[in-house]
Amino acid sequence: MWYRRVQSLTEKTETMKLLPENVKVLFFASDCLEPYVEIITVKDSKRRLSLCSSGDSEAEEPEYQEEVENALPVLNNHSQLLDGQHLERLAVHMPARTQGYPWQLVYSTAIHGSSLKTLYRNMAGLDSPVLLVIKDIHKKVFGAFSSDPFKVSKYCYGTGETFLFSFNPDFQAYRWSGENSYFVSSNQESLQIGAGGGGFGLWLDADLYHGSSFSCPTFNNKSLSTQEDFTVRDLEVWTVQN
Fold it and tell me: Would you give the end-to-end CA distance of the chain in angstroms?
């Protein structure tokens, strides 16, 4: 199936007026379906584009970036690690499909203790992106946005929406480089995000106490923490409710 945008008529046309800037008219046709027209808003159109392949989602329009900057994530629970400034920085890099929905706290070491098994158990049945936030003993805040909830799996999973970030002290976001697809790998012993070149972009042990962060080809990132090996002070995982 293919589609094209129906062009707005110019002032020379006497029978129709120009379409509003926030509206798109899409014409659909294929060999097996009757042609039809669908009218949607520009916002809905961009939300659909975010569900396409990760490669396509990399080319974001400047106008859309401005919309995201003004769409801060709304947290349904109190966070000990995230404040308004953190959310403002992160919102720019969140995919459009997360915009307009509240975020729910799924796991917190302060509430649930330090256990990777508990983290997996709390995410059982989820089918939505998650935001992992860590504060180490040096009070540095960093983490990862994952397109998929964390789970025990024999295989790597996730999409190009996944990214690493650090407030160390200035905000840095490390998007998918395209060099490999080692987004998330997780088992009973550890959680790894980003890999290749002999190190993980972010690694946590089964007790969610010891971790490490190295440069990796998946995101071409720098170490997220002050030191490549770090100790977790607090950890939270949030998921979008849609």
Answer: 28
Closest CA to 59 of 165, 175, 166: 175
Walk along the chain (242 residues) in steps of 10 and give the mean pLDDT of each run: 38 46 51 50 48 41 48 77 86 86 92 96 94 95 97 96 92 96 97 94 98 97 94 94 72
Given the structure tokens 């008529």, which residue do they identify?
A: 9
- Delimit the domains of the chain by residue range: 1-49, 60-240
Residues 103 and 241 sit within 8 Å (Cβ to Cβ)? yes
Q: What is the pLDDT of residue 38?
A: 53
Cα separation, 161 vs 114, whole angstroms: 27
Residue for token digits 């796991």? 107
- Of 136, 91, 95, 116, nearest to 186 (Cα)? 116
Q: E strands, the chain, where?
A: 2-5, 23-29, 36-41, 74-75, 102-108, 130-136, 141-146, 163-167, 171-174, 184-186, 190-193, 202-205, 210-212, 229-240
